[in-house]
Design a protein that fits this description.
Elements: E1 2-8, H1 14-24, E2 34-43, E3 53-61, E4 64-72, H2 75-102, H3 106-111, E5 128-129, H4 131-141, E6 145-150, E7 156-161, E8 167-170
Helix pairs in contact: 1-2
């Protein structure tokens, strides 16, 4: 297992490197086929002190990629948060692998509960709109995403608000 730690606008000391390795080595319990970790630690100039340090982790486990990002006041807090995020993703991934093979995952069996299923199905008419009109509609509703029928392509699209405030557009392609 290889752990690659890089810094962006910040010096990565040996102490931070050791801390990252200690936190991420625990993932070997969930994913035995870990190939590598890529950890990028960055310091950004933001107005908000809570978002000063950014830690991004990409885990490669036999071709399956798990990715997590966290922002915090200091580097160690950001590393703790991103380790929790990656740990949850690894547990969920391990549970899915187990579900495919033998039934309930160990986590659900230990808790004595069924795995979560679809709790609600919602149906609504999709209006033919341009992406700009869909973004306006999304903002008026106060949602972080909006499903619509794209006028230009005559296909269902999804527009969403990204963390930096810009918009993203998902255009499904039938493979």
């Amino acid at each position: 297992m290889e752990i690659i730690v890089t810094g962006k606008n910040v010096e990565v000391s040996g102490q931070i490197q050791d801390y990252v390795e200690r936190k991420l080595k625990k993932l070997g319990n969930h994913l035995p086929a870990l190939n590598e970790f890529k950890v990028e630690i960055g310091q950004e100039r933001t107005k908000s002190l809570e978002d000063r340090f950014v830690v991004q982790v990409t885990v490669n486990s036999a071709g399956t990629l798990l990715r997590g990002e966290s922002r915090a006041v200091n580097v160690l807090s950001a590393i703790d948060e991103v380790a929790k995020v990656i740990n949850r993703q690894a547990e969920r991934f391990k549970g899915r692998l187990y579900d495919k093979g033998k039934g309930l995952s160990l986590r659900h069996m230990a808790a004595g509960q069924e795995p979560p299923g679809i709790a609600r199905v919602k149906r609504f008419p999709v209006a033919p709109l341009t992406p700009e009109e869909a973004a306006e509609q999304m903002e008026m509703l106060g949602h972080s995403f909006f499903l619509f029928l794209n006028l230009a392509s005559d296909r269902v699209n999804l527009i969403y608000r990204r963390q930096n405030g810009s918009y993203g557009l998902i255009e499904p392609v039938v493979s």
